[in-house]
Amino acid sequence: MDCGLYIITDEVLAPGCSHIQIAKESLSGGAKIVQLRDKRRSGAELFAIANVIRSLCTENSAKFIVNDRLDIALATCADGVHLGQDDLPLSAARALAPRPFIIGVSVGTVEEAVIAEKGGADYLGVGPVYPTGTKADAGPAVGTALVSSIREKTTVPIVAIGGINLSNAKDVLAAGADSIAVISAVICSPDIAAASRKFVRLINPQD
Amino acid sequence: MDCGLYIITDEVLAPGCSHIQIAKESLSGGAKIVQLRDKRRSGAELFAIANVIRSLCTENSAKFIVNDRLDIALATCADGVHLGQDDLPLSAARALAPRPFIIGVSVGTVEEAVIAEKGGADYLGVGPVYPTGTKADAGPAVGTALVSSIREKTTVPIVAIGGINLSNAKDVLAAGADSIAVISAVICSPDIAAASRKFVRLINPQD
Ligand code: NI
User: Fold this and answer.
1) Domain B5-203 carries which CATH code?
2) What ipTM, to 2 d.p.?
3) Cα of A50 to ligand 1 centre, how many Å?
4) CATH class for the domain made up of A6-203
5) Rounded to two decimals, what is the model's pTM?
6) Which end of chain B has fewer surrounding CB within 10 Å, N or C?
7) Which residue stretches of chain B have pLDDT < 50?
8) Count of CB atoms situated within 10 Å of the CB of B14
9) Where are the domains of chain B?
10) A135 is catalytic
11) Which of A89, A91, A90, A67 is nearest to A80 (CA)?
């Protein structure tokens, strides 16, 4: 998996900004992975939006991931699905979607990380690293120490998430994160593409 | 598809009664199809519940259908999925789940019914036949006349739904419905199995 900037589209956190607009602008700013996350819209709406973002990602050589809904992911030929601890179990998802289909799993402890890797996760979403007001069910911040601990016990890519901004991103990468997932910090910016570019420079300084 | 009693489990409409309990009791009363419908629970919870109902249906030679979530249906080896007009489009679902996997589609007009049949629906959910307080997004009652009109223009089984009770069920069957889907009328009964049996006798008088 490409270890670039990972953008999570969330319309709730970016009022007036659509999933498609967030995807388009962040891709033009160099995002390498776009995750469509929406717990409110109907399957028909998600399907239509996912098809557009699928094309945008293909044009930009980026990966497209759907949050939670494996059916929408498969129906739109997404590259993968992202599963929380309360979504469809990893083993069940993997049985329906063999590799190279990507399955990412949110983990909040070393134990969950080890179980997810053994269960066939292709990357681990670790967080929330810092306190965040963006996800009600995200739990307390785990800090960069958890990123380091998980890095010691697992080998799959770590996508760090939660409260990461341009000031603290270096610490997160230094702790062992391969990628940084950004919701509010980038998305709520008036210039999503420019904000994305700044993160991309931090994650891939050689680019 | 067996044209017996079609039960939709809905915990919201039967407070204190779980999906599993509704399924178990209605199956013992002779239900031939059980649809798990739940818009609130997490994927992990739905998966666990669906696995249990899957087994119950197998033991009772009944079909198991999942509402909306094709991923949960496929992951639990359900017999099929039921799609509303605002769920994953039929064509996309059919591409992921070839026959004999059952796909049912809710239709509210003759045109929707013809499109669904052409698109590969295995049965049509027609309704709401009578006014119902059980589904906020169900739209105005369509009456038995729509069942008749759809019967004239299509050949796949019709499962009539919405406000059907022991008094009006005969009219619905006479209008051309092959099966009757029951939510509140059966589920809110203190004896789900006994109530199911009464509907079964109406639908299959020869049994
Ligand atoms: Ni969901």
Assistant:
1) 3.20.20.70
2) 0.92
3) 15
4) alpha beta
5) 0.94
6) C
7) none
8) 19
9) 5-203
10) yes
11) A67
